[in-house]
Amino acid sequence: MADIFLVGMNHKSAPVEIRERLAMDPDHPSKLFQAFRASSNIKEGLFFSTCNRFEVLVVTKDTELGLQEVLKLFSNLGGFSPSEIEPLIYKKIGPDAVRHMFLVASSLDSMVIGEPQILGQVKEAFRLAVQNKTTGVILNRLMHRAFHTAKRIRTETGISESAVSVSYAAVELAKRIFQDLKGRSALLVGAGEMGELAAKHFIKNGIERLGVANRSLEKAIELASSLRAKAFGLEELGELITHSDIVLVSTGARDYVVTYEMVKAAGKKRRDKPLFIIDISVPRNVDPRVNKLDNVYLYDIDDLKGIVELNLNHRRMEALKAERIVEEEVYKYMRWIETLEVVPTIICLKKKAEEIIESELRKSRAFVQKLDDEERESLNILVRSIAEKILNDPIVFLKEKSGDDSLQIYIDVIQKLFNINQLKIEGKMSRGE
Whole-prediction pTM value? Predict the structure, then answer.
């Protein structure tokens, strides 16, 4: 029986300067796929590489030999010596490898639990392996079950619901105040990366109008064009706040860019409409006194981090539910793996039954030819139904004994009883079956 195992390193086992050595060679995907195909021991293989992990998942005839082959691959790709690589990697064999794969695809092994990007990265890794023809029935089934597990966890738990980044938290807070962001207007003050990310989240959540104000008008124009927004200079800030529902401030200034007087003046023109201001700058760029004004809600980066931490705790609780789902799916997959050993015998049983049916129908050709099309079809259905019912009990028995220590004895007995011991059992299963 073939063995599944995984060898990898991630953000927990090795620092980034070590991990990046594995992916530095732009030709590393083709080298890995070539090595999989060249090995007489590795039956199937795939790998996935992200900023936080580099992992190889294979099916082999000989696990020990396979481990040595994969370690050699790691060493060659990263220029590591065997003594250097050993402490930095982890090895997962059999159900542990399956469990790890399900945890990774479900974002339960990520730096940020529940982050959505990893599933897409795993799917892309699988697509690449299929394209390079290095997967077969075992890994195809494993990966599809991994995707199914990830979907179950996403729909049956709340692991992906809460914001776990400052930019996501900003959107979540805005939703609490306005309930629905559709039709609202937002203003991004500054052209920093974190502010840009938050602005993109706001757009995805229905913000209708977005403005970008920056000290450098050129930078404001550049960012605004990527966001399909309007660009402004900081001298227009007071008027812009008057016409905005949400103001996100993220600049490198050392003093207050949004002043108490500016917001107070804007508030009079807004006629008590709520104004949500998020200051993710360090040092702060919004005068804290702004929070004392009626209908103005000011949050700084520490407020957002508090929300992120609360949400992380929520995700950790949901992760416990998710891990139970993973265990259930691992059990189902390993049960399926156990049935593979009986599949060749089952195929031969069915093949022999089909050969007997065809042979007996040929002997009865004179009688069969007297029947009309409908009668011949009824006869075909009848004889095949009888054959299926005769074979059903031994097939069910074999499947139930999958994983049993005495399975090979049962296989041998059934082969002898049905005289299929001389047949070449190849078990020609189609890919992905």
Answer: 0.62
